[in-house]
Amino acid sequence: MPFWSWGKNKWNPDGKHCYVTGGSVGLGLALATILASRGAHVSIVARGKQRLADAIEVIESHRQRPDQIFRSFSFDLCSAEGAEAALDAVVADHEGLTPDAIFLCAGVATPRFFVESTAKDLIDGMNLGYWTEAWTSWAVTRRMVQQGRQGKIVFIASTLCYMTFVGWSSYSPARHAVRGLADTLRSELQLYNIDVHLFSPNTMLTPGYDEEQKTKPKITLKIEEGDTPLTAEQAAIGLIKGIEANHAHISADFITELFRASTRGSAPGHNFVYDWALDMMAMIGAPIWRSSVDTLIRAHRAEHAEYLQTNGVLSTHGDPGPTVK
Amino acid sequence: MPFWSWGKNKWNPDGKHCYVTGGSVGLGLALATILASRGAHVSIVARGKQRLADAIEVIESHRQRPDQIFRSFSFDLCSAEGAEAALDAVVADHEGLTPDAIFLCAGVATPRFFVESTAKDLIDGMNLGYWTEAWTSWAVTRRMVQQGRQGKIVFIASTLCYMTFVGWSSYSPARHAVRGLADTLRSELQLYNIDVHLFSPNTMLTPGYDEEQKTKPKITLKIEEGDTPLTAEQAAIGLIKGIEANHAHISADFITELFRASTRGSAPGHNFVYDWALDMMAMIGAPIWRSSVDTLIRAHRAEHAEYLQTNGVLSTHGDPGPTVK
To answer: In terms of Cα–Cα distance, which of B189, B102, B186 is closest to B145?
Structure first.
């Protein structure tokens, strides 16, 4: 957004229908709560029914007006059919009209070494990290265009859509794919006046984070030990600020901001001078960071070999395929 | 590679076993031919048997020594099982040992508008643009580690792994995913001394290119009309030069080189000064390019609405899902 339009036409959720996938926990719930407290109608979709019920109670406690509509629905969003069915349910209380804003928060990471990942691990990674977002965006775009409605589609990726390292082979490809889709649609959906944003949070203190710590390789934990995680609320506030500023790519922490500014691709940046300064910092800093991480990884070889041995990773785990004769 | 090691330990395919997926046409065949002419044993895998037979004839005509082993195998590499079965066949004539270098050239693009893409189009895009490479890299990495063998895995993406625009919603996500996987494995496979490269060709004059022109939206054709395609041979030569220079990310044309240098993520760059100069050019040039393309796209709205109308895209095509009541 150029400086002369600061403060003009700031996006305002008041009275809008916001659809939040993965809205029952973590970032999705934090976002749904903020949107409710700012006067939006909120629909959330997730799988677990108890979590959805708990989430709706939290959202209700932020109600501003009696006419706000809060709904929750249990669907699996990993398939085109699931995404369509969820959308049918979500629009039912809104005269069949597509939501004004869609926040694609569903997503799960399961970090592991590549050689201990089964075929299912890799497929799950793509389903939970990419397809949940792709199918809902696909279903909703088509209907928005059919109905001639404008709207906003917000993809949620991760710092790992800009960069990646050891341990993330099932997750980073999915997050990179989300970035590829978001950037394509930012370009393409200009044909229909549909806005597309990409939000990339760094580590967040959510139930999903607790889960991913369980399978995370030691070397990955070590590389990440300097991270200062955000709360889901902090991330959600950063996301909404980015939308208000009409940024194509949004982040809520300085590390991701460095990678965003220095990993532009063809997406619009923020402020030229600001982005240039960050880019120069990253140009010096990123190779230093990478070198130090590469050194850590290479120093980890012996311990890793022992890990593979002790856990019988190469002989028994998962789906090793036929052994070599 | 730092300047003091120029010319040292340059990768040499002579006597090595090179496995080329998608090796029967286009870049894969051009690469297989060059590798054969430089003394490598070459195994190619693709689906079409006639094309494989034709390709082996071409490769044979570049034989340098009688003991070079050239083999072709017909497999579908879109599944973990297919990739494992292909690898079994490929290693059979090499004492079961994993190849010294794997070139992942299989890949097909089918550009289309997002709203006219069926669920199958999007799934095929990910299968043909990502999983063909992911499964083979997964199968081969595991065996390399089991056998304690070093090697080289070369992923092939596209300029569209760095940037993207209208028309590429089924392809760019897959190519971004390949970049995410390649960058993760460049980091992770240091644990086993396995080298990972990513090659990103721009438009190439191949049978695949002729296919993609058929479904490519008019606006996408217009945006690409200034492109100067490479031949598959030119691209293959660029790829091999990049491997000899030990570059993590390799491109064979100036436009991709601009996006590579300005879209670094956490992958190693080339030469600091050279990359910095390109980055500064891209910092000025990329927003200008993007603005001009965005202007083109917005000016295309009326014609596009007519296209959707005339072709009944939103009412009849593909798998529109339930209509809104």
So the answer is: B189
Region for B9 from its dihedrals, namely left if φ exceeds 0, alpha if ψ lies in -120 to 50, beta otherwise: left
In percent, how much of chain B has pLDDT > 70?
A: 94
In this prediction, residue B127 carries a pLDDT of 96
CA distance A140 to chain B (A): 10
Domain locations along chain B? 12-310
Q: Does A117 touch chain B (CB under 8 A)?
A: yes
Q: Which residues of A touch B322 (CB under 8 A)?
A: 84, 88
* Phi/psi of residue A93, nearest 5 degrees: -85, 10
- Digit-coded pLDDT (tens) for B69-101: 999 999 999 999 999 999 999 999 999 999 999
Predicted complex ipTM exceeds 0.85: yes
Q: Please tell me which of the candidates B115, B183, B279 has its beta carbon nearest to residue A145.
A: B115
pLDDT at position B260: 87
Annotation: CATH topology of A12-310: Rossmann fold (3.40.50)
The confidence band for A103, taking pLDDT boundaries of 50, 70 and 90, is very high
Residue B289 CA, chain-centre distance (Å), reads 24
**A interface test, pick of B133, B324, B325 with most A CB neighbours within 10 Å:** B324
Full DSSP string of B85-119: HHHHHHHGGGTTPPPSEEEE-------B-GGG--H
Q: Distance between CA A108 and CA A111 in Å, rounded?
A: 10
Q: Tell me the chain A residues in contact with residue B301 when contact means C-beta distances shorter than 8 Å.
A: 191-192
Q: What is the DSSP string of A190-214?
A: GGGTEEEEEE----EESHHHHHHHH
Query: Can you tell me the distance from the alpha carbon of B48 to that of B50, in angstroms, rounded to the nearest whole number?
Result: 6
Interface membership of B90 toward A (CB under 8 Å): no
- Residue A245 token pair: 């500023």
Of B188, B283, B321, the CB nearest to A276: B283
Interface contacts (A, B; CB < 8 Å): 250
Bridge pairing between strands A230-231 and A204-205: parallel
Instruction: Please give the distance of CA B210 from its chain centroid, rounded to a whole number.
Output: 16
- The distance of Cα A68 from the centroid of its chain, to the nearest Å, equals 26
With bands split at pLDDT 50, 70 and 90, how would you rate the model's confidence at A325? very low
Inter-CA distances, B92 with A153, B28, B143, B201, B217, Å: 50, 21, 13, 31, 44
Cβ of residue A19 closer than 8 Å to a chain B Cβ: no
